[in-house]
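@channel sequence for tomorrow's demo:
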Amino acid sequence: MINDDKLYFNWDKKHKFSYYESTRIKFDQLFNILHNCSPTELALTRPDIVTSAGLNTIYKNFIHGLMGCSLDCFDARTSLVPTNTNKKWWWDDSLQEAKVRSLKLFNLWVSEGSIPNSQSFLNFRNAKNAFKNLVRSKKNKSKSSLSNTLFNYLKNSRGHKFWHLWRTAFKSHGDSRKFKFEGAKNESDVANLLAYAHQTNCSPNSESINIQFKNDYLAKKYSYRSAERFFPVTVSVEMVEKAIFKIKENSAPGHDNIYIEHLRFAHPSVISILKDLFNLFLFLGEVPSDFYKGLVTPIPKFKSHKVNVNAEDFRGITLNVICSKVFEHCLLPHLDCLLTSERQFGFKKGLSCNHIFNLIRNTINHFSSKGNTVNLGFIDVRKAFDKVNIWGMLLNLQKNRVNPMIIEILENWLLNGNARIKWDNYLSDTVPLAAGVRQGGILSPILFSSYINSVLLSLENSKRGCFIGGQCVNSFLYADDLILLTISVTDLQLLVNICNDNFKSLDLQINATKSSCLRIGNRFLVGCSPIRLNENELCWVNEAKYLGISLKAGRTFLCNWHAARRKFYGTLNSILSALGNNPPINVVISLFQSFCVPVLTYGLASFPLSNSELRSLAFVYNSIFHKIFKSNDTEVIEQCQYFCHVLPFWAYYDFIRFSFLAKCVRSGVSHNYYRLSHEDIQETDRLCTKYCISVLDSVPVLKFKFWKFVDGQGCYAN
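structure tokens (generated this afternoon):
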């Protein structure tokens, strides 16, 4: 099925008031029906509304009303535009007029018999040449105007405008057509092939465990509601309004084409109506059918020029309707009782990969300094988010005493979930999803973390592996990425067994082919017994990747930064190839700082770098300046960086390193796992002394002091 109804809106400020008024008039009658009327009262006065069919009807009418008002007030365009015009972003009315005139004179010449050298032929040729010259002129002029426009959008933080212009000018469209799937004759077949593969992925691993979870949940369902007093869950206007402003502007819409701007720019009566609809959902224990649907876009996992592919080569990005996200934000406070281990670092505000890297490094250094060799186990859970058992998740909510109104609406929502795959503007058949958390869902992170929290608890209760001062450091999770740490191979085998048993009980499976083990310490070269997982063996490797950072086996803790350097060069080359020869320096530097530097420095803040590592990464960092300023002189490059307002690499590394350490110092007062090692504290003191800074300084103050230090160096050498 061809998808031709994707809309993009130009949310022009001058039309906001007309949209505001339009929504006020459009929804006045519905507002009067729902306002100051509880679902119980509605059931008496308007029983046609308080039913499953009525709920879906009123919600669809509400969405259609929003869409109608927006189409009346704002300019909208479809995503299905000719590919060649996408590339010609610089096309304007003068070019269109010249083209039309050329075609008109051509048709006139043909109608007169296509006589060579006739007056009509000469007129056509002159018009054609004028059109070609105008095209050439517009192209040449666009080279500078494009760069300036890109820079202005980037400088003014208008990210969506920047990327819209970038994609329009540089990205090729229809690239998905180059992929070849076995058994697929056309793009529609590919969409359905991917859809049924997605359906298979989102299904329980074990039917027997699934049935057991289902029976256990249903057996407790009705007694659970009356077991203790739960207060009714209601949604207020304030909650809806806060939820709306938690969603970023220009967030991608779901299948209904409703953007967050539809709600932000609407009359306040729209928020009140949403509040009443949400309370109606809770009263009935179900959500409208539009909430069940997800629109999935497949993204290649590989980065090569692979042509012959299969469904396993793609991962899906799911788009859900905006109103469902607003509703989830309103429900989120009612899941505060779902506590997770301090050793789960994913999905938590204020935490990043740097925190878990720092803790792993400090743990390894602590034991290796005492002469121990630390064994690391990297455990990969097969399609963890897609395979989460829905009945098991609902059972976990009961165990954590979540309000039954929340559980019942999640039961309805999750068990009726379905998806369609969008492939090259083709939509697949709708497929049901029998397992997994909703991708892109606001509640999905906390539901997933709570569900697998028992694994971390079991590992801690085993009293095996690494403990420091009685504190468990034998395992850490970042989302679904699990790492185990022991000083005994026997303990590592026991922890792997515990993981395997716990994941099986949760209806999840460990992927043995993607799991591995690695040793760091004096005896890292000594051969060890294989770690067994069911009928498979986990390989002992010399290098393993965890959260994108390559850890190396050795006497001390070391990382391999080759992948970061390669990815940096790839990102930089893609930008330079798009901008062409001699692009404006301000554009290149802005893109370099925004997109290349984060690639190179990912994870660096948690690691103290050696001098050789600093020099190696600085060489990569400086490469763009060597290229655009055409100089290999170190002093010249440092001067260019200074006048481009770019810190030299050694100063930039110190800045991100200190920012991370200062954050840990401030947070460590109340959280054991954030506390720094003695070496980290010494480094913090050294940086404070070097730059005359404090851990309490704000980011702008830190930047000022770092630049003051660099400015005072004269010769920018560390």
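heads up for whoever presents: The longest strand covers residues 293-300.
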